[in-house]
Amino acid sequence: MSHVLVLNSGSSSIKYQLLDMAQGTPVASGIVERIGEGRSSLTHKVPAADPGGETRRYERTEPYADHEAGLKAVLDAFAAAGPDLDAIRPAAVGHRVVHGGDRFGGAVLVDDGVESAIEELAPLAPLHNPANLAGIRGARKAFPNVPQVAVFDTAFHQTLPPAAYTYAVPEEWRTGHKVRRYGFHGTSHAYVSRRAAAILGQDPADTNVIVLHLGNGASATAIESGRSVETSMGLTPLEGLVMGTRSGDVDPSLPAYLARNAGMSAAEVDTALNKRSGVLALAGANDMREVWRMVDEGHEGARLAVDVYCHRLRKYIGAYYAVLGSVDALVFTAGVGENDERVRAGAVAGLERLGLRIDPAKNDGLVRGTEQVISPEGAEVPVMVIPTDEELEIAVQSLELLGR
Ligand code: ADP
User: Fold this and answer.
1) pLDDT-derived band of residue 51, with 50, 70 and 90 as boundaries?
2) Does residue 292 fall inside a structural domain?
3) How far does residue 340's CA lie from ligand 1's centre (Å)?
4) Residue 361 lies in a domain
5) How far apart are alpha carbons 245 and 309 in whole angstroms?
6) Overall average pLDDT of the 116-123 stretch
7) pLDDT of 174 higher than 90
């Protein structure tokens, strides 16, 4: 029986899951937080073996200076609270890495060359790649005898054709500075589109899907015959859909306009577009549950926020329909996509001529955390809700790479 340990390392945190690949379910999970900040903490959870049982929790608060120390604490947690890693002997450690540039079109076995490449790509993801790399370096020390696999958020979108990934900008930007569309959330789009094909009973290679990954970050992808051919995030995750705190598409002249008229620097505008825009800027809150509460209380900003959010979704669905020519399924996933029936209804409102329709009873009565078709029986284009599972996808890709 194979197990894979999946690590998602942020600048001051490490999230982890140990998956039993016979079942595809986690047998332990946890998070190390505030690494390098003095008051670090670790929370380790071991779900009960039987359905009615209680999850075992193990917690520690002690300073972890860096990712290596954090991973040592994770090993201690497994030793103290189980399961026994020495007995399980994970087949791989799978690492989430945000940016693989145009260098990585799939998962790779980590070696010194891969580490250097992730480091060289840091200008494209200055917050994420160095943190991901710190996790990889720590894990190579903590698990010296286990193969380490890097799975990139961008990799699934490396199949975009030049017509889709090229920005019409000066040559020296494109070649000298690697300016192009990369796309993100690839692990989720890959997983969800494959599940959609399985639900349809089709081979992914014969299936065209539009996936809307709507979390705090959000992106849409057009998948043709199992391959990503267009996606809404670009050089960075700022482009495309309206998100929790990101604007998505704006006029590219906005930074220059604000520099002239508000004295703002490019960095200030960039920070504001990433952290103080999107639903948060319009409604004053970025959690959709809170935003809908405000809508119900008559808050005009919140109403505008959901209108802008859903309008952008409809626009992208229409555009990706045109890109694909024919669509076998439209899929909603991630926090908002899986849980927000009003956003789902708003996203397809008025798209009946495209064959897109939602059955209100199915949409409203959805059982959380399950895969469901929410379009009416016999609909031209099935509309689905599919919970994403990026950890499972990272584990699956890690094992596939190792030929298991
Ligand atoms: P992340 O991008 O951080 O991985 P998630 O996919 O977990 O995000 O999505 C988080 C978001 O999902 C929250 O900010 C919230 O807006 C939304 N969300 C979660 N539960 C619900 C719900 N029941 N109804 C509406 N929105 C929800």
Assistant:
1) confident
2) yes
3) 9
4) yes
5) 12
6) 96
7) yes
Give the mean model confidence (pLDDT) for residues 229-236: 97
Q: What residues are designated binding site for ATP?
A: 15, 213-217, 287-289, 335-339
d(CA 21, CA 16) in angstroms, rounded, equals 15
Q: Domain range spanning residue 222?
A: 202-390
Pocket flag, ligand 1, residue 245 (CB < 6 Å):
no
Which residues are paired to 151 by β-bridges?
96
* Cα–Cα dist 398/149, whole Å: 6
Does residue 247 share a domain with residue 384? Answer: yes
Angstrom distance (rounded) from CA 143 to CA 78: 13
Helices (H) and strands (E) in the chain, counts: 16, 14
Judge if 212 and 125 occupy the same domain: no
- The atom of ligand 1 lying closest to the CA of 368 is 23
Q: Which of 50, 76, 153, 206 is catalytic?
A: 153
Domain-ending residue, one of 152, 181, 212:
152
Cα distances from 400 to residues 90, 133, 404, in angstroms, run: 14, 22, 6
Q: Are residues 346 and 267 in the same domain?
A: yes
Among protein residues, the one whose CA lies closest to atom 15 of ligand 1: 287
Place of tokens 């960095």: 267
Radius of gyration of the chain (CA): 22
Considering the domain architecture, whether residues 249 and 356 belong to the same structural domain is answered as: yes
